[in-house]
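Lab notebook, bench 4. The sequencing result for the construct came back, and we need a structural model before the next group meeting so we can plan mutations. Quick request posted to the team channel:

Model the 3D structure of this chain.
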Amino acid sequence: MTEKIEKSKKIWRRSFLTLWFGCFITALGYSMTMPFISLYLDTLGHFSNWQLNLYSGVAFAITYFSQAIVSPFWGSLADRKGRKLMCLRASGVMACTIFLVGAANSVWMVIFLRFLQGVFSGYINNATALMAAETSHEKSGQVMGNLMTANVSGTLLGPLFGGVIAGAVGYRSTFFITGLLMALVFVLTFLYTKEHFKPVPAKKMKSMVMIFKELTNRRLIIAMFLTTLLVQSSLMSIAPIISLFVRELMHNQGNISLVSGIVAAMPGFGTLLVASKVGHLMDRSKPEKVLTFGLFITIAVFLPMYFVVSPWQLGFLRFILGLSSAALLPAVQTILTIDVPDEAFGRIFSYNQSFQATGGVIGPLLGSFVSSIFDYQSVFLVTSLLIVLNLIIVYRVMDDSK
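Done. Here's the predicted structure in token form:
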């Protein structure tokens, strides 16, 4: 019996490490390319500042737009076929589309490939759902926190690697390397991930309407969906224009690519520093309390960003933002893990991904729109208002559930 338990633990640990690595590479590849996509687009034609802001926003948002539309379909398929298959689907197609972005010769080709990438994306979301289903509720917070370190570590190192590669051999190479890394993730996930999944026939699956009716705290689940949307919108609002903002702060002097990469990576340092500890805290305390505290700190950090006059000031504040971010989306995922039945994990997590993807659409477009009309700093005032709204929603739901 002891031998069987040890074997089971070994299989679980191998699956976790494989998916951790897969999430790390997915985040690494994303962050290697995204901070510089506006600069990459600038090499594909002659654009005004307004056009470049707009194209950058669309190139960012289009992936999340398509992801938001198709995520419920993939979630339903995941509940019928398993989450491992969804991880393979995501990593395989992303390997192809990201590689081809590096070979694009026009802005519209980049936008189309980014759209296609969004249709088949979802590795991190499905890896999270897979591990949530394979882990006891008592350790959910710890596992969600540790998976967060994979995401954050990739996000942290990606801009640094991307900045060095882009500065040395050009922007296109970052896309080629990312595509090859995602192909490696596909192979490792196929070979080393084990999922204890029993397929559910489509006819026996409960509808989402029925599942929501059976949930004991429907308002809390809906509030978590909205939290995911608003948090993602806020965090992504500056993403498509951060390199342009850094270029403005540096007065178009110096190694803009490298400094942009460092500034983009700073939240990763903060989140990586505390993500595991936050996970343990959520297992000992209520994740709702951790989420509320994180939202409050995030508001306090966004407001001073309006007054920055150098990239290093922006980088420092983004580091503090990373500390608070560790208490946001992992707390949401922990709440969903605890309050959702196992047979609905795929669909609930896919709906949450749809809201996250919608935030990925709203945030970049909002940031591009605000920066085009006013200035880059004004984006931070708008994102502060979004987090204030989020905090009000969470407070009201928590008060009603007491």
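Residues 49-81 form the longest helix (33 residues).
Will bring this to the meeting.
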